[in-house]
Amino acid sequence: MDEKNIPIRTYQVCNVLEPNQNNWLRTDWIHRSGAQRVYVEVKFTLRDCNSLPGVTGTCKETFNLYYHESNEDRESYIKESSFIKVDTVAADESFTQVDVGDRIMKLNTEVRDVKVTTRKGFYLAFQDVGACIALVSVRVFYKTCPLTIRNLATFPDTVTGADTSSLVEVRGSCVNQSEEKEEPKMYCGADGEWLVPIGGCLCSPGYEDKGGVCKACSVGFYKAKSSDTGCSKCPPHSHSLRDGATVCDCHSGYFHADSDPPSMACTQPPSAPQQLISVVNETSVVLEWAPPRRLGGRSDTSYSLECLICQAGSHNRGLCLPCSSDVLFSPSQTGLKTTRVVVSELRAHTHYTFIVHAHNGVSRASGAGATQSVSVTVTTNQAAPSPVSFIQATDVTRHSLSLSWQQPDRPNGVILEYEVKFYEKDQKERSYRIMRTFSRSVDVTGLNPLTVYVFHARARTAAGYGEFSGPFEFSTNSGSLTITSTNIYITHAAVTQLMFVTLLCFPPSPLPPLLSHLSSTAGVKIYVDPFTYEDPDQAIHEFAKEIDVSSIHIERVIGMGEFGEVCSGRLRVQGKREIYVAIKSLKAGYSDKQRRDFLSEASIMGQFDHPNIIRLEGVVTRCKPLMIVTEYMENGSLDAFLRKHDGQFTVIQLVGMLRGIASGMKYLSDMSYVHRDLAARNILVNSNLVCKVSDFGLSRVLEDDPEAAYTTRIPIRWTAPEAITYRKFTTASDVWSYGIVMWEVVSYGERPYWDMNNQDVIKAIEEGYRLPAPMDCPVVLHQLMLDCWERERAERPTFSQILNMLDKLIRNPGTLRRTGSGVGSEVCVSVIPEVCMPEWSVCQWLQSIGLERYRDTLAAAGYTSLDSLLTLTHQ
Ligand code: AMP
């Protein structure tokens, strides 16, 4: 019976009166179940030996607890010695008497633990050595640290370690919708308690911790990062439509920049900048504007500038081209935080359109090309050229220095001349000399031997002089006097100066090589067709000088001609200064006919001697390849040159070019030479802007080919109708072509009749159509063109009349002011100031250029007024 008199079963023994008791009670096999330390809780009652009457020393008050590890679950016999003693167990309490009726029963509970790690299970045994004992219950158990969640990591139910002091390290796993912040770890102590939690997990984006569970953010809320504490309400102008949002989506028309924090409101790109104003200063423009009216809820507005070169008056972006990369933007072109930019290094006299775009952090997100902008169109003014950056000495003697230099980086127009200032280094600038030249080189003579001179050069355009270059020092040498002709140098310098003034007041006009040749009218020379010679070599040697190939130094390829490459190089003929030349060569494998045709151009050219006709220096026929050597024309062919410098010249300069061509053509017509292929592409331009007629190849081709009029070889657009139809090529048909060249020049290299096909051009001309005046073309010039395009060739002007007409226009630039453009009003396009047309006397003019020593020579020859100077012929 237990305390409550409920009958219970017990194992009992009470052999207290007999000595040497050894009674065993053994359990069944107990499966260890992974436990390493098991606990044995024994409940028992024990009689106090003293309470037993007549009991001697045989009575005991303890029993022994044993265990035996085994894999065998049904061991029938286990030797006593196989058991290992766990402990001798004594009772805490003992009852001393048994009262039937009112019995006091004391139940003892003792717990012992034992390490069981070697086998699958074990047996327990109780040894009685003479006590009076009743074993009420034996409970065997092991301890675990129970499954738990700590810091959002789950730790599984974990069996404690084998030793009382051992800790089992357990790695936790993150709960659903969470991610590891730091490896979650805990230790399971021997008594089943979790110890020392380390690390843990965080709810994933879109989820928040609700009592150890990660719950999705609800609609209208979001959580962007796992480290954020919880879900937040969507920022302004955004929403989330589903649970578990990690970001909120912007309302339509609002945007989020990648760099914006998720908590930031959605924003909009700015509206256009406002009140863009421009101030042009020569070739720079200051642009200023006000910030956009709407900044879109952001404070990171920036601006970028687009720079376009547009045709005058064009608002069509298709007719604009991006500016070159030389243009400078200060402080910058993009990413601007200020509302002011200085744009410099622009081209002079050019129409620019500047577009200011406003951006902010969401401009890109809101779609490409969606930036709001404001634009302004400006026209730059004229500007002086940039400084000459480098001067080099190409030849040094005892008394002279030959210098050359490069064109300034930014000529800002056509360079009219260079000015070289120099002085002896010792003298500083107390006394200096100035020389002026058209070309990029000068020979400075009359210097002292072995003396250091300092040179500065500057360039001049219609806008005036640029800055002088920095100083360049060169010393004359001590060598003995060389036989260079000082006279020639002086003459050259004089011609240089004369050219300078001529250009200032008149167009670049042909110049006599020496002033002493000013007078006299030459007898009429007639051109001889080289094909009338039976032996073409005879013709060539009659009209062209044979050059020794060793005196030619080829430098680079500059173009492609009909027969092969065209190169530039230098020619040094003994006793003469080295000059730059163009070299045309006949490619290998040519036929006899090709040789003949190739050399015929030289035979023709060699007969001419005029400043507006390309000059033949000579030919190489004695070795291969055959070469034709001509003067070098730095600016190449006129059509390409004009296209490159579109809009950069004054009307006077354009007329100056036309005058040169007319003068060359007059010379050819005087010699009864019909060019047949007069076109801007066949005019070459040198560094002084002098235009020269070239390409004397076509006449032959057309004569050889009776079908030429109907083949693509005929330059339909440039050719007079009677020449197309009847092959009636005359000076009058050259005049027609000259009219087309005028149109090409004034339109800066536009293709005549644009992209009309040849048949349509022929038809249109036949029906009386004529090319209209190019943009800004003075009315008088277009009238002159129309005159050249008279159907009746006898009604066309002669080259002599054309030349006179152009000279008149140059002398009265006011006549060039009226242009056809601008409805109802007159537009002034001439920028030549009146001061360029001084009412000077020949004497004043000569004085101003330091050539008054020629006064008498000119007067004696009848040149008493400036007008009369214009009638100077080459001879
Ligand atoms: P052509 O065969 O004469 O038409 O020459 C072909 C190209 O070479 C021309 O369009 C020019 O660009 C170049 N060229 C020809 N002659 C000269 C020259 N004397 N000076 C400079 N460039 C030239």
UniProtKB/TrEMBL annotation:
GO terms for biological process: axon guidance. It is a single-pass type I membrane protein. Its main location: membrane. SMART domains: EPH_lbd (SM00615), Ephrin_rec_like (SM01411), FN3 (SM00060), TyrKc (SM00219). One of its GO terms (cellular component) is plasma membrane. Residues 841-875 form the SAM domain. It catalyses: L-tyrosyl-[protein] + ATP = O-phospho-L-tyrosyl-[protein] + ADP + H(+). ATP binds at residue 584. GO terms for molecular function: ATP binding; transmembrane-ephrin receptor activity. Keywords: ATP-binding, Cell membrane, Endosome, Glycoprotein, Kinase, Membrane, Nucleotide-binding, Phosphoprotein, Receptor, Repeat, Signal, Transferase, Transmembrane, Transmembrane helix, Tyrosine-protein kinase. Residues 1-150 form the Eph LBD domain. It comes from the Eukaryota. Residues 269-383, 384-479 form the Fibronectin type-III domain. This is receptor protein-tyrosine kinase.
